[in-house]
Amino acid sequence: MNTIPAPTIEYGTLAPLLVVFGAAIIGVLVEAFAPRYLRKAIHVPLTLLSLFGAFALVLVQVLRGQVATTASAMGAVAVDGPSLFIWGVILVLSFVCVLLINDEGHFVASAAAVPGSADEEEAEAEGGGGHTEVYPLVLFAVGGMLLFPAAHDLLMMFVALEVMSLPLYLLCGLARRRRLLSQEASMKYFLLGAFSSAFFLYGTAMIYGYAGTVSLPGINEALAKGSGLDPLLMLGLALLGVGLLFKIGAAPFHAWKPDVYQGAPTPITALMASGTLVAAVGAVLRVFWVGLGNLDWNWRPIIWGVAALTMIVGSILAITQTDIKRMLAYSSIAHAGFLLVGVMATFGTAAQNAVSLKAILFYLAVYSITTVGAFAVVTLVRDPGGEAGHLSRWAGLGKRSPMLAGVFAFFLLAFAGIPLTSGFFGKYAVFAAALNSGTQPGDSMGGWMAGLVVVGVVASAIAAFFYVRVIVLMFFSEPAADGPAIAVPSTGTVAVIAVSLLVTVGVGLYPESLLGVANDAAHSLFIR
Amino acid sequence: MTTHYLVLSGLLFAIGALGVLIRRNAIVVFMCVELMLNACNLAFVTFSRQVGNLEGQVIAFFVMVVAAAEVVVGLAIIVTIFRTRRSASVDDANLLKY
């Protein structure tokens, strides 16, 4: 009998992941065994503590200088510098989003009850609050988000993709108000998400057929040997790209984003717009850079086109929107395009790679925290039937609630990339890295990179137009007599807005602080 | 020898993808997605044979588990929609647009 060698698992390195998944499983047990009136009292501290604990474990690894230099768990998970940075960002974001989720009134009391039925009234009357299943679902989704950009082979990446997405599909359908919209968003997200993950999986199968392995470095090695023009490889690259670009919402795979962002409960939209985007961009970087690095003359022209299209589509369609959440969704699409410009710039020498990686990590961190703040403000502007989504309802908000409108205006300026906000330095870093990569010797896309930056700057200008339009609407038009009520924010919501405002202003004034951290993370590069 | 299986897998995948695009009932659309996942499984197992290692077969097991989890979530969502609207047609879900 042959003995099977036992696998080694680096528990210390993987601890942040294990803490989040462990807490999620405990959360499921709480749902099963704790009486209803106790559940929320157990879930909230459990969720917040586990996210905080995981963040502390990430910090410990970084501060001790113990960043792993080889992949953990038999080559399945790579906890390198960029992974740790992305983990830290996702954990902070999800902590902040859980504070938003805590607020009363976002989630339905009984998702199974038909809207408008007696069942629903009964559930509302007896239960109070919403489904407490939300907390373990969020933890599972966050666990998936952590694993997705750190996955070091395509199988692990597929599993992480599903662990991240499946809870989010459900969470989208749990809004307490406007339940038809919420359920519709959930179904659209689910069907399109499942469709795109099937593409991802078939792409994985094709690449497995070509390379004989699904491990990312293994694929890269096989690419170095082969001619690179194998039909299996081309097909795999295209299908894999569809699956990944869908997740970051790049055009032409962006159609789900406005619908889902509008229909989902706003705290969940905040989590998707920040956490999912960060995780998906991390995964895109890892696949294209670690797995397909030797094929860059094949995928860079495609990403060039997708990036340009995404920036233009996102910026132009945002102008025509009349719903604030839809507008922010298109803005998120445009920002996905700006991030892809950064992905394009990962070419050439290790120094150039570090520069562009630093730019993307920095951009991800500042953009996502501003997004959470903006959606937190959206939760506060309310009509009798729920949040006041329509832009016309926001008219004159600056006169009725100057503080809130001022904060929102500041977030919009940060999205637009006005100097003295964090968004400016994010865009600057990405565009500078892209221009720099065009000057690398041997870059066949040299001139094209400058072209892409021009497209990016034009798209930013178009985007600035609709951000400023909302600001003008808030401050320079008369408020309607029956305008929306401004809800008294809970402590949690105030904390969320304060944190994202502080980061947006702080990084805007002292970008070196965060740039330094991003730089350290980027310099250890991805484990190849 | 393995080419036939690959062609079959490609056909199944194409039928599934086409079904997602042209069928109107959410349950059928969902079944087509499952068909696509099974086409992936067939491709993985075939390549496993062709390449000569077991990775592909192991992956097929993972995919089956993920597909099962997806069925749970998907049916929950579709049933909720059906109870609300008395229809599982994807054309009727048209409140979110533009």
Automatic annotation (TrEMBL), chain A:
Keywords, alphabetical: Cell membrane, Membrane, NAD, Quinone, Translocase, Transmembrane, Transmembrane helix, Transport
Record-level GO BP terms: ATP synthesis coupled electron transport
EC number: 7.1.1.-
Reactions the enzyme catalyzes: a quinone + NADH + 5 H(+)(in) = a quinol + NAD(+) + 4 H(+)(out)
Compartments reported by the entry: Cell membrane; Endomembrane system; Membrane
Membrane-spanning intervals of the chain: 14-34, 46-64, 84-101, 157-177, 189-211, 231-256, 268-289, 301-320, 327-348, 360-381, 402-425, 445-476, 488-510
Domain NADH:quinone oxidoreductase/Mrp antiporter transmembrane: 151-438
Keyword check for Transport: yes
Membrane topology: Multi-pass membrane protein
Pfam families hit by this protein: Proton_antipo_M
Any one GO CC term of the record: plasma membrane
Taxonomic superkingdom: Bacteria
Primary location: membrane
Sample GO molecular function, one term: NADH dehydrogenase (ubiquinone) activity
Keyword Cell membrane (UniProt): yes
Assembly, per entry: NDH-1 is composed of 14 different subunits. Subunits NuoA, H, J, K, L, M, N constitute the membrane sector of the complex.
Entry-linked PANTHER family: NADH DEHYDROGENASE
Functional summary from the UniProt entry: NDH-1 shuttles electrons from NADH, via FMN and iron-sulfur (Fe-S) centers, to quinones in the respiratory chain. The immediate electron acceptor for the enzyme in this species is believed to be a menaquinone. Couples the redox reaction to proton translocation (for every two electrons transferred, four hydrogen ions are translocated across the cytoplasmic membrane), and thus conserves the redox energy in a proton gradient.
Family: Belongs to the complex I subunit 2 family.
Record's protein name: NADH-quinone oxidoreductase subunit N
TrEMBL record, chain B:
Gene Ontology molecular function: NADH dehydrogenase (quinone) (non-electrogenic) activity; quinone binding
Pfam family name, one: Oxidored_q2
GO cellular component assignments: NADH dehydrogenase complex; plasma membrane
Residues passing through the membrane, by range: 6-22, 27-47, 59-82
EC number: 7.1.1.-
Matching InterPro entries: NADH_UbQ_OxRdtase_chain4L/K, NUOK/Mnh_C1-like
UniProt-listed GO biological process terms: ATP synthesis coupled electron transport
Classification via NCBIfam families: PRK05715.1-2, PRK05715.1-3, PRK05715.1-5
Function: NDH-1 shuttles electrons from NADH, via FMN and iron-sulfur (Fe-S) centers, to quinones in the respiratory chain. The immediate electron acceptor for the enzyme in this species is believed to be a menaquinone. Couples the redox reaction to proton translocation (for every two electrons transferred, four hydrogen ions are translocated across the cytoplasmic membrane), and thus conserves the redox energy in a proton gradient.
Protein name, entry field: NADH-quinone oxidoreductase subunit K
